[in-house]
Sequence to fold (149 residues):
Amino acid sequence: MGILMSKSMDANLQKQQEFMLHNSRLQLERQILMHNQMRERHMAMQIAWSREFLKYFGSFFVVATVGLTAGAIKRKKPGMLAPIVPLGFIFAYQMDSAYGTLIYRMRGEAENIIASEHDRLDLPLGAPTFESIEKARRAKSSLISVLEK
Fold:
């Protein structure tokens, strides 16, 4: 009778462990998907911000270019056209950021850094550990208790 009960308990334990493993995997997959969706939303917001900024900066660039050109012609001073050059570079960068291939070039460079310059990505003092987090938490909680007195 004891052997049958032991086998039944072992089978139940095995099923429970498989169930827990399945749930852990499912939870991890959900966390990965959620994190990726949050990253995608953040990137979409950055691109949208770039496009919105480009509208305002583009308007400023056109008005400044027309004004500087008119002033240079009226006063016969070609030096007044000089600010158009740096403004043109900024406009080109914003255009590339909003509608061009800047994001793809940045992604490629990031992949290159991860592959060949991984040491540049190391955190100071290494990755946080449970012990370092607990030490900081304890230090903060003891500080709060001292301040409350």
